[in-house]
Every structure is written in C-alpha cells, then in structure tokens.
Amino acid sequence: MLSTSEQKLEKYWISLAGVLIRDNKCLIMEPSNSPGKWDIPGGRIDIGENYNDALIRELKEEVGFVNVVVQGVVDYDIWYTEKRNLPICAIAHLISTEETDLILSHEHLSYEWVTREDLKKYTFVWPAAQRMIEKGFEKYNELKKYE
C-alpha cells in the first residue's frame, strides 16, 4: 500500500541517473536501503519539475556536485517494481564535472570507482544498470577521441 505522500505521485516514476567516468573508472554507490547492491547517482523527477533541473538536483543531493555538464543520454530502461507496485523508467546520462570533493548523502553507505571490466563483479539495484554504465563507457571513449 502506498503512503499518502506517495499516492500524490504519478502512476509511474521517471528516474534520471548520471554515469560519471574519470580516468576510465565509473562512480558507483552502495544504497543504504540495499546493502551489497550498487547503483549510479540519480533519482526521480518530482511532479512539475524540469527534466534538467531534476537531474542536477539529484546529483547535488547524492554526491554534492553542483557544476555538472550533461553530455547526453546513453541508455534507458523500463521495468516494473513489485516493491512499490509501480513501473519505472530510468534514463542514464553521461555526465562530467571538474569537482573532486564527493559528498555522499545519507542515502548511500559507500562508493567505488570501477573499471568497465570490474562491472561484472557487482550486483546492481537497477536491472539494466550494468548495461547503462557500459554504454556510458562507449560514449565516454567516443568523446575522448575528439578531444
């Protein structure tokens, strides 16, 4: 059963996430509510919120970055979650920032920087998170060719 505040939300969630890659390693985080599993920074759009504003807000809340460049969508997925009894659409973006001081929110226990090859060692909260990160690496490497 959804709480009163959740009943005011749409009938589905749109979640935005940022794939941040530095030195051929991607930032992943261990959620407080799912120890032992991993995800990438992001969250859902609130009712009436602008798409870009929501992504920037979520990145600020989860990792403390305020100067983020969104370099484009790398992947998306839609799945049904039994826990919330809702469908979720997740859209992953390749992001970059010059900021180096990561401030982890209370929503996460820890974080790691992992290579593309390391991804197979992790279990992710999102069903398609590994694929999304791999596509982020593809776009990252493509952009590096033109620098």
Would you mind describing this structure in some detail?
It is a single chain. The chain is α+β, with helices and mostly antiparallel strands and 147 residues long. It has one domain (4-145): Nucleoside Triphosphate Pyrophosphohydrolase (Alpha-Beta Complex). 23% of the residues lie in helices and 35% in strands. The chain contains three helices and six strands. The chain has helices at 4-7, 51-63, 129-145, and strands at 13-22, 25-31, 42-44, 69-81, 86-96, 108-114. Strands 1, 2, 3, 4, 5 and 6 form a six-stranded mixed beta sheet that branches. A hairpin with a 2-residue loop joins strand 1 (13-22) and strand 2. The longest helix has 17 residues, at 129-145. The chain is globular, with a radius of gyration of 15 Å. The relative contact order is 0.25. The model has no long low-confidence stretch (mean pLDDT 90).
